[in-house]
Amino acid sequence: AVCSMFYALVTSALRGGYGLPLGENVANPCGSTKTKPVLFFPVCGRANLNNRIVGGQDAPAGFWPWQVSLQGSRHFCGGSLINNQWVLTAAHCFPSASGVTVVLGLQSLQGSNPNRVSRTITTLIVHPNFNSATQNNDIALLQLSSPVTFTNYITPVCLPSTGSTFYSGVNTWVTGWGTIRSGVSLPAPQTLQEVQIPIVGNRRCKCSYGASLITDNMMCAGLLAGGKDSCQGDSGGPLVIKQNIRWIQAGIVSFGKGCALPNFPGIYTRVSQYQTWINTQITTNKPGFIVLTVLLLLLILLIDRVI
Fold it and tell me: Domains in the chain and their CATH numbers?
C-alpha cells in the first residue's frame, strides 16, 4: 500500500509537467517488474564528457555542450541550446538579429575547433515585457536556420519547470567567453571559462541592490566575498545546476554591479518563470522541462528504495 501511494504521487507529479516526457510511461515499482521509472527527458542535460567536481578555469571541450557563442564581427553574448533548433539567451543582447551567427560545439574563440557548427537566425523572439531600464524579463529565443545534430559536443540543456525552487547556498556553474575582470579580455586562445558559484537568496540580494530592482523574475548567484562571477560578454549564457545525471539551466546571465565585487552577486533571469511563454513560442519539439522541488526529490528517493 505504501509503495502504491508513492508510485501514484510520483506519477501524478510527473504527469503534471514535472519531468516526464509526454506519452512516456512510468514503470510501476509495486508490480512484478523491477524496472526503474524513467523520470527525465532522454536527451536534455546530458554532458557525457563532463566529470567535473570542483572548478578550474578553462573548460575542456564537451563539458558544457549546450553553450553557444553569439557572434557578429566577434563574440558578444552567450546562449544555450534547448532543443535541436532553438537557443535561449538574454533579451538585452539583441537590438537586432541581423548579421548574427550562432556557433555551437565551440571550445575556444580562436584556433581550431573540430566540433564547431554554425547557424544563422531565422526568428528572434524577445519577451514582450522586457524592460531595458530595469532588465526585468531579460529573456529571448532564437530559432536557428536549420536543426543541429546532437553529439557529445552539441546537446540541449534541460530547463526548470514552473514552481522549481532554488535554495540559497546551492552550488551552480556559469560558463562563457566574457572578460575575466572588468575591462580585462579573456587571453588567447580565449577558451570557454567555467566558474562555480552559490545561489544567493533574493532577500539577501535585495539588501545589496535594493528591493525594487530584484524581481521574482530574477535570481542571484555569486560569492558575497567577491572574486567569482560572470562578466561582460557572458550575458545570455547559462547558469546551471546538476540534478542526478542531468544539468538544468536555472538562470540566464543578465546584469550586475561590476564583476565579482564583494556583496554584489550576479543577477540572472529566473528561467522557471517562463515555461508557459517558452512553450507558447516553441510549438513542436518542445524543450525538456524538469521540476526541482524537495517533495519530488524525496519521492524519487523513496521509490528507489522500494524497487
Answer: 2-41+290-306 (no CATH), 67-155+275-287 (2.40.10.10), 159-273 (2.40.10.10)
